[in-house]
What we know:
Pfam families: MerR-DNA-bind. The chain is mainly alpha-helical. The chain has five helices and no strands. It has a domain at 2-79.
Amino acid sequence: MKAHATLATSAATRVMCYGGFRLSALPSVGIPLKQINDALASLPHNTSPTQADWKKLSTDWRKDLDLRILQLQKLRNTLDDCIGCGCLSIERCRLRNPLDQLADEGPGAHYLWIKEVTE
């Protein structure tokens, strides 16, 4: 537990040192402090990040954010439909997942999850 607190403190300190608002918004959209800390650790120490540094970091974070946005949109748009979880409580479940065939793929909402973003 103490190591986690130290990591969070370290990341928070570097967030403040490396450009304030740009990075301080990341945890509020679900990018974990460890991921932020790891990204910042890849930057040269004792210098300010360059435009190229920010571009690389933002490209990596953009992919993650794009996937999160798509996942939230799909969740919002399918809350009232069969998501392939196996409950078979909605009439359409019998059409989309007859006899819970998706159970062979393991637990979860199989029709809900987006595996990767394709461009």
